[in-house]
Amino acid sequence: MATPHTYITTTIPYVNARPHLGFALELVQADVLARHHRRRGERVRLQTGTDDNSLKNVLAAEAAGVEVSTFVDDNAAAFVALAGPLSLSVDDVIRTSRDPRHRTGVERFWRACAASGDLYRRHYEGLYCVGCEQFYSPAELRDGRCLEHGTVPQQVSEENWFFRLSRYADRLHHLIATGELRIEPAERRNEVLAFIAGGLEDFSISRSAARAHGWGIPVPDDPSQVIYVWWDALGNYLTALGYGTASQDHQRWWTGAQRRVHLLGKGVLRFHAVYWPAMLLSAGQPLPTDILVHGYLTADGRKISKSSGVTVDPVALAEQYGTDAVRWWLLREVPRVGDADFTLDRLVHRANDELANGLGNLVNRVITMIHRYRNGQVPTGTQQAHGSNELEEAIRQAPGLIDASLTAFDFRRATTAVWNIVDAANRHINFVRPWELAKAERAGDEDASGQLDAVLATLLRTCQQAADHLEPFLPDAASRIAHQCTPHTGQLPNPSPTFHRLTAPTSDTPAGPEQ
């Protein structure tokens, strides 16, 4: 049987400012899924990139007094560099203004839709939000303002190219309602179905070159127009695979892949679940199999975004508090449905409570006891440790719980499987009290000696299992724990802290880990 291929993508962010924690959430979620599918024996491609061809980028560069290409290159580099601080296993990054694959593929895609009779040119007047890079009807605004950005859209009147979205309403509704195109969570699927049921209108897919300030990809055979940034950007999922070139990646990862998985935030759901599938149908391409939608991160109740200026720097967070703490907060605090409010206190509390006091303390106690009672040598006990049923059950259930939870796009529940093992192991230590078994062993109790071997062997195996199941979520921590739990020249390494306790910043205390 051929090895399954899974293609996992993130959205590609505008580079009108430096990256924030909201996009880090999507990157970490995608990375967890990629690592999980690799562990299942699948071939995986984790794809991300940057959306360079936006009018937002042009206006931000002009406001900064910097040449557009220089401004875009600088900010794009900051997004690409997130792989290190967040411990991401990204396979490829595409930049829409620089990568030679992209323009070639976008032009081929445009021509494919034109050949289907789905592109036409007409005059249009409408309200355009630069922040969303989208036209809105008056009914979609609140008090004349964009719901997403709170700004008054511009009145635009020009001749553009349009895509016949209305032609695909029935097919899209059927594909989504039957689950052939799977959207999770169900609340988001229902939102898309309601939008389609309300009627789909053809949408503009080009802008005048003058309004685009000459930035972007020219419309094939019509240099007076620039391809609409969303048409351009959505195409990256194909162009990154060499669509339009001689590369075999398009067949391997798109037409021939078992799963094509898009991760995205709820604010761009319409583009990915309605516009993009219709465009693919027009071009004769397979659709994504899964669209997985996360909510927003907020800070003090306000959405974290580049446009609003409400931002949290994920690189600075990782430098001050560690990659593990940042990833763990994103995976443990953000619900499957709904938004999550970020504070440093919450990040520190979650890391200290579950990583330092829970998992880190467990590993340290187990390694310390094996050194103290068995000179660092791994016990070879064959007995069943008394009272270990709950612990064994938590270990037994973990793989299935993690797999089912990640299939349902529920990272909280998936990480709970690891926490259940840690929690059960710490309770097991308090129940069996190995120090009392060691005391009885010194008094000559052979049964106690056998039981101590069994307990220590069970606990070490538990730490090894916890590290194994932790790997998709916290790869760095999993590696450190696995190292501590693996004998070297016959002995386990000396115990050392797996996690440092963190302190939240105050007016008098700098942020950072306690040493």
From TrEMBL:
Keywords: Aminoacyl-tRNA synthetase, ATP-binding, Ligase, Nucleotide-binding, Protein biosynthesis
Ranges for domain Methionyl/Leucyl tRNA synthetase: 132-366
GO biological process: one example: methionyl-tRNA aminoacylation
This protein's name: Methionine--tRNA ligase
PANTHER family, alphabetized: METHIONINE--TRNA LIGASE, MITOCHONDRIAL, METHIONYL-TRNA SYNTHETASE
Domain of life: Bacteria
EC annotation from Swiss-Prot or TrEMBL: 6.1.1.10
Region called Disordered, residue ranges: 487-515
GO molecular function: ATP binding; methionine-tRNA ligase activity
SUPFAM superfamilies cross-referenced by the UniProt entry: Anticodon-binding domain of a subclass of class I aminoacyl-tRNA synthetases, Nucleotidylyl transferase
Function: Is required not only for elongation of protein synthesis but also for the initiation of all mRNA translation through initiator tRNA(fMet) aminoacylation.
